Amino acid sequence: MPKALIFDVFGTLVDWRGSIARGLASWVPDADARSAFADLWRARYQPSMEEVRSGRRPFVPLDTLHRENLDAVIDDTGSTIPEGDRETVNLLWHQLDGWPDVAGGLARLGRTFILCPHSNGNVRLMLDMARHNGWRWDAILGAETTGHYKPRPESYTRAAEILMLSPGEVMMVAAHNGDLAAARACGLATAFIPRPTEHGAGQTIDLEAEADWDVVARDLDDLADKLGA
């Protein structure tokens, strides 16, 4: 039985796509265009972090990458979001809405386990998102805390070290099979929760568990049931 649960956040706990699309309403009137903008913005997420993971660029927080990616998407799409509004738009990532099961599930799990986000998002982003959704964390882990973006092994091993636990006492909870594979390779326990609409109705990836993860649950309430919380 794990002592701590560390959570992927974007997609696993929050509906980033729907939240960003809703937040863009003041600048992009058409709903389909807002969803497309959110997809284009997110598509630059992994490539921008890879510049850091590869060592080609020193570590910078995700807010910095998000802002650079926002400017690039605006340039590519010819969007009319004014320069003076772009920092406000960038902060939409701080106000993402949780999936319906998350608040109650975290409250149940928190009575038994240490709970921490383990996200590529920076600390202030995670703090603001938690306050927006009414979540309580015991600590904030992830890229800015460990100095490494997932799925670098150091991200997972350093998280366990910070909690003063062995890797096997820490369970990574994610909706992404790749995240769990990287965590398992570092000795962490794993739990998969599908989020089949993270990327919209046409999602084709991470629809189901692709390995024998330690726990496979429908949502956080089901995870709490299976962990006896």
Structure description:
- The chain is an alpha/beta fold.
- Helix content is 44%, strand content 10%.
- The protein has 11 helices and 6 strands.
- The chain has helices spanning 16-23, 31-43, 45-53, 62-77, 86-90, 102-109, 123-133, 143-146, 153-162, 177-185, 220-226, and strands spanning 4-7, 114-119, 141-142, 170-174, 189-192, 215-216.
- It has a 6-stranded parallel sheet with strand order 3-2-1-4-5-6.
- β2, α7 (123-133) and β3 form a beta-alpha-beta unit.
- The longest helix has 16 residues, at 62-77.
- The protein is globular, with a radius of gyration of 17 Å.
- The relative contact order is 0.17.
- The model has no long low-confidence stretch (mean pLDDT 97).
Order of helices and strands: EHHHHHHEHEHHEHEEH
What is the topology, as strand order, of the major beta sheet? 3-2-1-4-5-6
Radius of gyration: 17 Å
Task: Compute the number of helices.
Answer: 11
Supply the helix-strand structural class.
alpha/beta
**Unreliable parts:** none
State the end-to-end distance: 11 Å
Top keywords for this entry?
44% helix, 10% strand, 229 residues, globular, six-stranded parallel β-sheet, alpha/beta, single chain
Give the gist of this structure.
By secondary structure, this protein is α/β, with parallel strands linked by helices. The chain has helices at residues 16-23, 31-43, 45-53, 62-77, 86-90, 102-109, 123-133, 143-146, 153-162, 177-185, 220-226; strands spanning 4-7, 114-119, 141-142, 170-174, 189-192, 215-216.
